[in-house]
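Intended use. Records such as the Iron ABC transporter permease entry shown here are meant for training and evaluating sequence-to-structure methods. They are not intended to support clinical decisions.
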Amino acid sequence: MSRATLGWIVLGWVGFALLPWYGFDRNAVHNLADYFVSGSALIHGLKGAWWLLPVLAPLCLALIPVIRPSAEAKGNWLIASGVLGLALIVLQGFSIGLNGWTVDILRNLFGEPGPSQAGMGYGAALTATAFLIILCHGLAAHGWCRGDAFVTSSIGVVIALIIVFVFFPVTTILASAFADNDGNFAPYEFVAKFLDRSIWGLDCVTSDLRCGVAWNTLFLGLLVGVGTTALGLAFALIATRTDFRFKKLLRLMSVLPIITPPFVIGLALILLFGRSGALSAVLWEWFGVPRSRWIYGLPGVFIAQLLAFTPIAFLVLIGVVQGISPTLEEASQTLRAKSWTTFWTVTLPLMRPGLANAFLLGFVESLADFGNPLVLGGNYEVLSTKIFFAVVGAQQDQGRAAVLSIILLAFTLGAFWLQHAWLGKKVYTTVTGKGDAGIPLPLPRRVALASYLTAIPWAVFTVAVYAIIVVGAFVRSMGRDYTPTFEHFLTAFRVERADWGFYFSGSAWNSFFATVKVAALSAPLTAAIGLLTAYLLTRQRFSGQRAFEFGTLLSFAIPGTVVGVSYILAFNVPPIEITGTGFILVMCFVFRNMPVGVRSGIATLSQIDKSLDEASLTLGARSSTTMRRVVLPLLRPAIVASLVYSFVRAMTAVSAVIFLVTAEYNMATTYIVGRVEAGEFGLAIAYSTVLILVMLVAIAVIQLAVGERRLGRRSASAAPSPVAVQAVP
């Protein structure tokens, strides 16, 4: 038996016999001596919690291969131990709650109310994890995934995490779509809500009336998906294939909107283009263009979402563009193809994985976004805002919110299927183990011109939007009183000196420290799980793989408001009782933002030849070593994309956490929303400006820590000059 398997068996016994079985109480960390043994499942079981004692059986089963080692029987004993152990923990966890039995059959058999128990704690989590890994090691012993325990364990852990933190909470709230107000099964109510004319109506085609909210959402999502992909590609081409002097500044402008807190872009657009906006005033005074409310509706939401989601497309595409082998382009030109023909027939087709994943992310983000439509939507209704008001508005119709969420999921599933159909089974490998000293070819003139005409005006527009944000932070009242002041910053971030040291008296410090702490914890976890999932999806083949891949998109496709409510419903009662802790915020961010790491990882890994992995394995390296020494260095663009996105989203997300924050963990975005609701726009913009600066520093640190990917290719400056070539005899 391997040391890893034996180690997990020992950890299973530690979780059962030593660690506290119930509750994630912080006292269990600070006062370990008081909680060890006395709060373990073994002691609870001996004191009367008899339902915990059967877990001893699978723990003993796991020891049989240790006592009687046999290569043939080892896998069977490990599988039996893992399956039985997980089944017992899940069964006892969901059968007994705070108020006794939770299943009618048990109430009828044993009487009411029955035993009670709190939510699972450190001991239960460790023991359940141990059973899961033991099961995966047993499957590896039977030859699953070529007998690689690391791969089987990785697949098992990722699937388990997705089930617990994605499927379980999401299905908890979606189940209400098929229930009436009393919780009874009512499929006819689902059909009536699903076929509502306000959702699917096409009156806008035949009259001046509005179309259904589903068509509005789909049309906006398609526009944003295409727009963000085109802008992201233009920025990526300029950043990697041109000698543009201000390339780094242009790259900064492309990423800047992703680090902007919610509602700020919408507020900036209103301050620019609203009836009293700065640009509207200039157009009226100089050119006589009448003031209007055109920014409210589809145009305003479209512009705001382009600003917000273009950085995601850029982060996905830049690694893909960098990974294209110049040798393939040179081979095309050797065959006398023109530069435009080479770009159209060689370069662009090799970008397909990046283009498909960038479009999918932009489309899904548009569907799930509710902040921008809430501020700028006007009469243009989308599903996310309808869901928001169904959950928190006067309607309080959870079933309607669930039905609308199912429609959003259907749109996401359709886009996911179309993406796979477009990519097909073609091979997009461009990074191999062979030497590749080719020089990246300059862009064809038409492509370069189109990229400049697309990216530079958009960057200038971005600068204008952020100039408004910066100005708003340093004046008393934007649009009314432009007197310079630092009052907003002092109110939020005042630091006073006291007898015992410095005192952070500003009103925003608590939320700021809590936000940075949660973001710093969630970002590396998000990147690790997302990139590991991408590796498994591209390098392994297992049953249910397509469903597994779609499952990674599930929480990303549902509006954050629904995700927040689903976490409250799922994790406010046993067996997993984590509401009110910082842990629930971290897990929410991890699985809400993980799809970006998955999609960028898949796009990058699609270009990396599998022979590199196979060569490492042939030389005797384990899968974990191959992942660390071979794959990860080639995944640096995807690592940067995942870390940057997950960190800044944790700093700026509002919809998913607005129901999860507490007095101790009051996030920055909820503070900003509170200031916006109170009309304190200057304070909200000042706080947002500080967050933007912090995130810029964090992005620079991430980029320096991860570093650039080295593909062994020459730069254009390293190429020999024509004179030198001619001088060679």
